[in-house]
Design brief:
Length: 102
């Protein structure tokens, strides 16, 4: 998969906002990896801010919706992983500033 395709995928995923924090999930550091199979399956490996995150299913649905906008994507598979656990260190500088995290 090309870096351009990876960038396109991350770009559309940036439209997905964590409803609790009001910041997109890319800047929050929730996306661990994106891949696109030769058959056109987008595979997103991500985590959530907490295991009990009630917005998990909504976030996954939003990721699927955004990625399906890309012509190369025929199907979306989202894998949620808990290791390593999410922490504020994964957040971008932008997200830290927006949330007032030091």
């Amino acid at each position: 998969m090309s870096q351009d395709m990876k960038d396109s995928m991350m770009g559309v995923i940036e439209n997905v906002i964590d409803p609790e924090l009001g910041i997109d999930i890319v800047n929050l550091g929730l996306i661990r990896d994106v891949e696109l199979s030769e058959e056109g399956t987008a595979i997103v490996t991500m985590t959530l801010t907490s295991m009990g995150c009630p917005m998990g299913p909504q976030i996954v649905a939003n990721i699927e919706q955004e990625l399906m906008e890309l012509p190369e994507v025929k199907e979306v598979e989202v894998k949620i992983v808990w290791s390593p656990p999410w922490s504020k260190e994964y957040m971008s500088r932008y997200a830290k500033i927006a949330l007032g995290v030091r």
